[in-house]
Design goal:
Length: 148
Amino acid sequence: MRIGGWVMAAFFLVGCQGGSEMTETKTAANTISVGLVKIPVSDLARSAKYYREALGLTEEFAVVEYGWAQYATGGVPLCLYVPGKGGGLGEAGKCNSLHLITADIQSTREAMQLRGARVSEMRKGDDGYRGFDITDPDGNVIQVVESK
């Protein structure tokens, strides 16, 4: 996904209820890869607006009646769904293992904050990564980290 002059893509996911693990498995006859990543939300219209406007994601489509919205994030779409409407049975606000990656962490954070995203302070991990958290309207937490 392109935000201003940088590119952001879904990087890693484990633990979101109703989500998928971002891995690829090869077998003798088959390659298995991730098709999409799902985040449970309570109000699709509110969340879709937040992901589109505050985070700057490119919305591929959103259908409030079906409780589903989909965003381009590189090779794997990021999807929002309302539990019980066909997308899964996760619980809104319980996703906290999604990581997005960007080439310019400072500019990405500043742009998201200016558009109204709830972002944490910048931090640096023991392994040298730099990043920050985004908290969506339901309390789902997404970590944004800088690619090396």
